[in-house]
Amino acid sequence: MQNQRFQSWAISKTYMSKNPFLFNTHDLPRRAGEMREYELTIDSHEALGFEVLAIAQDEPIDIDLRIESVAEGILATATVRTEASGECGRCLDAVYYDVDETFQELYEYVEDPRQARKRNKPGKKRPQKSEEDDLDEDLVRQMDGDMIDLDGPIRDAVILNLPINPLCSPDCPGLCPDCGVKWIELPEDHAHAPADIRWAGLENWAGPTGE
Ligand SMILES: [Zn+2]
Ligand SMILES: [Zn+2]
């Protein structure tokens, strides 16, 4: 049916535009040991990061992606390179920060729900696991058909490693708190103290019409 086909295309296109980090693993044979490598550039995405420092919207994100078939699913290993921009926390100058991070993420095949129930029964035939492993298990990512969603791992790798207080240089002297001019542009003896004292007195004077 022509209409139906168009509709499903439209839906998947909307979905794709919502999440540019979905990757189709269709080309990878589902046989343990098989591997494929890709060079991707994602240049249509929302801003990632904080107000002071972020990968700007649509700033190209280059990804070297390797996907491997393993018994449980697909193991993705990636290097993520991009540039974050923001402003110095002291002088408000623009700052740029090279992002070069790696991550590895396992995407499990989605199990038949009936199978999953069986496995979760007490006395299941699974190797003994520590509490830590159980915690990790909650974070297991699953495949969505042939799709793997790189959004979470990319955000984790990139955002968690961005400096929270970006500086234009480690010893940036910042701004004069009184006039807001950069210390670096002010003479060494720059000071406001005498003027401030005079004006401080006037501030309390309500003027000729005051009491
Ligand atoms: Zn600065
Ligand atoms: Zn000043």
Gyration radius from CA atoms, angstroms: 27 Å
Helix content: 25-40%
Helices and strands: which structural class?
alpha+beta
Please give the largest β-sheet.
7 strands, mixed
Total domain units: 2
Morphology call: rod-shaped
The distinct ligands, each listed once, are: zinc ion
**Unreliable parts:** 1-16, 121-134
Oligomer: single chain
Describe this structure in words.
By secondary structure, the chain is α+β, with helices and mostly antiparallel strands. It contains five helices and nine strands. It has two domains: 173 residues, no CATH class; 31 residues, no CATH class. The strands form two sheets. Strands 2, 3, 4, 5, 6, 7 and 8 form a seven-stranded mixed sheet that branches. A two-stranded antiparallel ribbon has the order 1-9. A hairpin with a 6-residue loop joins strand 6 and strand 7. The relative contact order is 0.15. The N terminus is likely disordered.
Question: Topology, please?
Answer:
Blueprint: H1 2-18, E1 22-24, E2 35-42, E3 48-49, E4 53-55, E5 61-69, E6 73-87, E7 94-108, H2 113-120, H3 131-138, E8 141-142, E9 147-149, H4 151-159, H5 193-203
The protein binds zinc ion (2 copies).
